[in-house]
Amino acid sequence: xxxxxxxxxxxxxxxxxxxxxxxxxxxxxxxxxxxxxxxxxxxxxxxxxxxxxxxxxxxxxxxxxxxxxxxxxxxxxxxxxxxxxxxxxxxxxxxxxxxxxxxxxxxxxxxxxxxxxxxxxxxxxxxxxxxxxxxxxxxxxxxxxxxxxxxxxxxxxxxxxxxxxxxxxxxxxxxxxxxxxxxxxxxxxxxxxxxxxxxxxxxxxxxxxxxxxxxxxxxxxxxxxxxxxxxxxxxxxxxxxxxxxxxxxxxxxxxxxxxxxxxxxxxxxxxxxxxxxxxxxxxxxxxxxxxxxxxxxxxxxxxxxxxxxxxxxxxxxxxx
Amino acid sequence: xxxxxxxxxxxxxxxxxxxxxxxxxxxxxxxxxxxxxxxxxxxxxxxxxxxxxxxxxxxxxxxxxxxxxxxxxxxxxxxxxxxxxxxxxxxxxxxxxxxxxxxxxxxxxxxxxxxxxxxxxxxxxxxxxxxxxxxxxxxxxxxxxxxxxxxxxxxxxxxxxxxxxxxxxxxxxxxxxxxxxxxxxxxxxxxxxxxxxxxxxxxxxxxxxxxxxxxxxxxxxxxxxxxxxxxxxxxxxxxxxxxxxxxxxxxxxxxxxxxxxxxxxxxxxxxxxxxxxxxxxxxxxxxxxxxxxxxxxxxxxxxxxxxxxxxxxxxxxx
Lengths: 320, 318
Ligand SMILES: Cc1ncc(C[n+]2csc(CCOP(=O)(O)OP(=O)(O)O)c2C)c(N)n1
Ligand SMILES: [Mg+2]
Fold this sequence. Notes:
The structure holds two protein chains of two kinds.
Chain A: H1 7-32, H2 47-54, E1 62-66, H3 70-75, H4 80-87, E2 111-115, H5 121-135, E3 141-146, H6 153-164, E4 169-175, E5 178-179, E6 182-183, H7 184-187, H8 196-200, E7 204-208, H9 212-227, E8 233-238, H10 256-264, H11 267-277, H12 282-305
Parallel strand pairs in A: 1-2, 1-3, 3-4, 4-8, 7-8
Antiparallel strand pairs in A: 5-6
Chain B: H1 2-15, E1 20-23, H2 39-47, E2 48-50, H3 55-67, E3 72-75, H4 86-99, E4 108-114, H5 129-133, E5 139-141, H6 146-159, E6 163-168, H7 169-172, E7 191-194, E8 199-203, H8 208-219, E9 225-229, E10 232-234, H9 238-248, E11 251-258, H10 263-275, E12 284-288, H11 306-317
């Protein structure tokens, strides 16, 4: 089914995954330093999904994601500096400092936004996909959401309508084992969330979400299917959330043993092993890491140096 | 009014090929109240999307279409069912342009009728306009007659903002001459339905007619009421209300929604802020009682009518 990605491609993914990882490190650190309020929901440990999936898309294809969506925004081509400035609520942020960590958007890059209401963006993504179908523009929409979101009505309702109308939509569930504190296994009484597809009449697959090549393969196939007009696909990516739910979340729900297991699942060293085995050099990898770090350090400096929006502009953008 | 709304939708769909309709029973069936008659035949299944039963997600799909540049009209069969779609309306449509810094617009209209006094009981009789007024980012439109419905709907579609367009089942069958031509009515401008000098009755939707009846009766006794048909609650024509109160010195607010925290409270407060010095009597509110709406004869004890408006004017005049 999937051809092995070229070494060059994998190196690109490796660099992107580090870009996301460093972005999230900076986000958490900035929050702790009080550079912004609210909270922030890191996708550390889940980078392979955003990167592998986005690589299967054309620039004009569209993505919607959740509050845990910094990685998806970066993978879809948004600049870390405009994202970090948005987290810090600065006027140079991608949403002019109105959205913050949970409301990111970059329409010109096909990034149709992140959402802070669990599962609410799934029907919205379907509407965007329906618009593509009606305009016959060939674009596909990928919507990312968590395991918890698959318990919401919006998910089920949208599956039904999306299959009915053969919408060009790819539904990517990031099953990271938790909805805040609730373990997936205590909320969802089936082995794989992809089985939900069975009753709705669409293909459902489960892949190891910590392997970007596997995610890429599954999403590429689903995207091709959607472009052929055959409708939606549900892809479950099993992954691990090893940070807390968000920067302000209380609670420990992992014992040491489990934490070790999580770290072992870290997609970045896994990819590193593959890269070295395929002939990449440590120097190459180090250069990519350093570049990712430099980009993010510059992004943070830019965000800190940027101005806050003027109070007089607080009423802008409400009505068209 | 049903025909006028049909004409408005047809007119705009001919004019703008991107407009899409979404909802249940809107296809060949023509809509629960006949509003969609002939639209499916003219525009076909792509643009007139007769969908499965799911208000919440249908409204969400509408948001997605709207932010993709396709103005969308979503059908909510009874205003009561708007509660199911409230996330898509209040958390998504109303806020998306704002929190994305103006990167998207949300040209989404949710059409929903008030269906009351038919004995359908507590879940099919509500007027929920105040819920929607309480959400910045939305427009709330409440026409009281066919001509206004047509002009306001055309204006709302072109305006390009998320709008809850509240119709009224009792008004669907009401006939009146309606402009054939393109005749949008500006949002946020009330209509003086009857001029008067002694008291202002500010009302909208299903209470305009009873208010006019009360005004006619009082006029026979020499009490001249000015009846304001507000047309839109968001934006609210506060200045128009105050201008009338400055002239008459008295204000009566009338609606079919329950009283507490209803639109009437906001309307009354507008006069307090903008015309307090002119008020000669406490503002009166005519509204449904703060109860779930019962079925059968009991409902008559809940909803206000022309007699209640008349009594409120007399209280203000006393
Ligand atoms: C409708 C709604 N209910 C509850 C919440 C609070 N909440 C935020 S994230 C979350 C957990 C969602 O879990 P999941 O879908 O697995 O995504 P994850 O956070 O694991 O990425 C909850 C309950 C919310 N934002 N929206
Ligand atoms: Mg989860």
